Amino acid sequence: MALPQTLVPALPVLPAASNVGNPLINIGIFAAFVVVTLIVVIRVSAHGKKSAGEYYTGGAAFSGKQNGIAIAGDYLSAASFLGIAGAIALQGYDGFLYSIGFLVAWLVALLLVAELLRNTGRFTMADVLSFRLRQRPVRLAAATSTLAVSFFYLLAQMAGAGGLVALLLGINSQFGQSIVIAVVGLLMMLYVLIGGMKGTTWVQIIKACLLITGAGLITLWTLGKFGFNLSSVMQGAVDTAAAEKVKFDPQKLLDPGLRYGKDLTTKIDFISLSMALVLGTAGLPHVLMRFYTVPTSKEARKSVEWAIWLIGLFYLFTLVIGYGAGALVGPTAINSAPGKANAAAPLLAFHLGGSVMLGIIAAIAFATILAVVAGLTITTSATFAHDIYNMVIKRGTATQEEEVKMARFAAVGGSIIAILGGILANGQNIAFLVALAFAVAASANLPTILYSLFWKNFTTRGALWSIYGGLISSLVLIIFSPVVSGKPADPKTGLSPSMITDPSINFHWFPLENPGIISIPLAFLLGFLGSKLDKEKPNEAKWAEMEVRSLSGHGAGGAIDH
Amino acid sequence: MSATRPPADRAAAYAAVQRSPEFTELRSKLHRFVFPTTAFFLAWYFLYVLLAAFAPGFMSTRVVGNINIGLIFGLLQFVTTFAITIAYIRWADRQFDPRAAEIHTMVEREIGGDY
To answer: Residues near A191 by Cβ (< 8 Å), separated by ≥ 6?
Structure first.
């Protein structure tokens, strides 16, 4: 798709090394962020007790506002910051469609999940799911899907890090990038080990403030260049695309359909993706765990309110940033930069404010990866230590000290997996992993959460069928979909855009890239059938306790340890 | 966990609270708010998604300058999300919380304080 550079002399042509800005400034600003957050993490964790509650949920002592900002910091990952801006820059309106699903999804969390979950659980998603069902099998199932979702999400974050390093630090060798990925992973591990959930939360709060301020600044700056008229920004993107002779009608940037409108399959694929986005958020374990960091359900409600305001505002910014990058940087420069679409926002920052602005955005992007991965690591370590080690293996007999110690081991293990995964995935085409994480969360987690909270006759078999059915069906459908193998080869490179680039290997039979449209209804159905066909009667006494507690908040004394 | 009463007793107390008219009212009030609202925003979201997929011509109709119906509908998704959030928070603060607090007191009386 990229045109020869000679055709576009009007562009700010970048040095041949294909990186922009001053790597020293980028590293400097990032180092400053690391130092400041590290000091904060050490200070906030100095007085903390060493209890499980302290490590997993920061003693449930955050306010709704603080937690809401941290949720925004956790949720606005590199994929949404860099990915959506880039998608809008290159594909126009269809990129915007993503952000709407990501935002509307929060209403599911607000209306159906956050408060009731806060009132019935303490540390993990499995706490709620196993409340009135048989502990060990349900915990194990919930822990399995938690680890799966978090692993896919984590790998997607780390894989993006390599391209970012190439773009921002001018490190182009695989080895150099691996070193940087390892450094980022080790830093993240340090935050989690020193600060637990409290430290992680503060990193996310600081990052969210920086991200939203930085994005707001670029948005105002871009709008200022176009007389504060969104319509003119969009016209600018059309004009630049026309001047660069893109392959499609440049007017199409403003309309739906450029990416998903090709044929019936892509349209159904888009609907499938939309289902996963809107139903997946309230099933992401690292998002659910954040609701335990506040003392009451009222504060959990306030958390989601704050998160919705901040996330909504941010996605409005990305609309301007995306079209702005299309207008001022142009598709050719974006496509030829390392990281392609992900480079749109950093390149726009460079165009507007030179090396310093790029440095700020670069540091924010690194901080984003750091903060999101730290949140995922806390979640996986809590799941491993609390659900698998204590509840399943030790049958609830482990002491708090043993559990926290196990959680720290798990955090180290998780960090090593993140680093190795990041290095192996570097440069691989695994962007679909985020969509997969949402699809698994929407299929394996959300149906069981909703049934647990609202359906009296839900049973253990229903939970197991729903969790494993949702998990396995979405995984199988992805493996046999065109994202893994069998997309037609690119005539220029002779390689397939699938994950397996060899075009002769083709074992796909599922036509869609997103499994949600099949796996989500299937998981709901399995949860229903499993409960109906279970010989075991639903536990009415536990249901009474769960329902009364979930609505009244009785027994949810968050800061109190048992 | 140190409950202030033996388990059988506690279970009976929870069941009694669950059957009480106050609790039944609280539950039905909550369900009457959240279920229709969820049905509404999901229907509106999927209507938008379906229009974007199957009626691109309609969505591409220009309204002002380059601002077309698709963009306006997209921005309206933001507006309805914000509006539902505000409405729910107001409702929960005024209607739900006082009643939930009453139930909480009732449970405390039956079973004992938070444990």
So the answer is: A37, A38, A41, A199, A200, A203, A370, A374
Q: In this structure, is residue A338 part of a structural domain? A: yes
* Residue A23 belongs to a domain: no
> Contact A112/B78, CB-based, under 8 Å?
no
Greater model confidence, B5 or A298: A298
Q: Provide the β-strand partners of residue B62.
A: B68
CB–CB contact B48 A256 (8 Å): no
Establish whether this prediction's ipTM goes over 0.85.
yes
Subunit contact B59:A256, Cβ cutoff 8 A? yes
Assess contact for A82 and A346: CB atoms under 8 A: yes
The token pair at A348 is: 């726009």
Domain, as residue range, for A271: 51-552
What CATH number corresponds to the domain at position A403? Answer: 1.20.1730.10
Residues of A whose CB is below 8 A from B101: 552
One-character DSSP codes across A117-159: HHHH-SSSHHHHHTSSS-HHHHHHHHHHHHHHHHHHHHHHHHH
**Per-residue confidence (pLDDT) for residue A456, from 0 to 100:** 93
Residue A171, classed as helix, strand or coil, is: coil
Give yes or no for residue A22 having a pLDDT over 90.
no
**CB of A242 less than 8 A from some CB of B:** no
CA pair distance A268, A518, nearest whole angstrom: 11
